[in-house]
Amino acid sequence: MTASTITPPAYAKLILHAAKYPSVSVFGVLLGPSSGSITDAVPVVHDFVALSSFLEAALEQIKIHAARTQTRIVGLYVANQLLEDVSVGPLAAKVGLEVDKLAGGNSVLLVVDNAKLLEPESDLGLLAFKEASGAWKPVSNGITLNGKVWETVQTLKDCVEKDKQTLIYDFSNHLDDPSLDWLNNGAFVDAFQKS
């Protein structure tokens, strides 16, 4: 099984989504031109506890956004609430199966290893899982960065020091303030690229 690749801006969005909400779980959808190639991350929710019409509405909007940006849903990411929890919990597994259907199968589920975040190592702090017979199985060497890991991690550290994770918005934030750009997070992407 080949490794998935992720671009630095997509990686930054999902990591800083988790950094913005360190005491709750976060969930988002991964987009790319094809399975195994992640070029964007769309933050969906922080502190999610159940599947609902909320999630269905977010996924519908993401499908429309993906079509407009000539990408498709290729997976999802989860950062669990507890620091050392790197499991695919029951809710994440269930949401993952729904996202896998939208992706046409062969999607990736990335779990953020919160304990490894922002450490200057060659490890991205992400664990990759693939669906197999209705369950999520770990994939060794399942995710690589399209770019220089050390420089990207240093840029993320700089972003956190400058509190730029506050520029990341998810669908939950958008429902509170419809003017927030949760699908693109353009203000954050601009700030990240200038860092």
Query: What proportion of the residues form beta strands (DSSP E)?
Result: 15-25%
Spans of 5+ residues with little confidence (pLDDT < 50)?
none
Global mean pLDDT: 89
Strand tally, please?
A: 9
Q: What is the CA-atom radius of gyration, in angstroms?
A: 15 Å
Counting H and I runs of at least 4 residues, what is the number of helices?
6
As a percent range, the share of helical residues equals 25-40%
Largest sheet: spatial strand order: 4-2-5-6-7-8
Structural class comes to alpha/beta
Shape: globular
- Sheet with most strands: 6 strands, mixed
Element order: H for helix, E for strand: EHEEEHEHEEEEHHH
What is the first-to-last residue Cα distance? 34 Å
Describe the protein in words.
It contains six helices and nine strands; from the N terminus they run βαβββαβαββββααα. By secondary structure, the chain is an alpha/beta fold. It has a six-stranded mixed beta sheet, sandwiched between helices. It has a three-stranded parallel beta sheet with strand order 3-1-9. Helix 3 links the parallel strand 5 and strand 6 (108-112). Helix 1 (8-20) runs parallel beside helix 4. The termini are far apart. The mean pLDDT is 89.
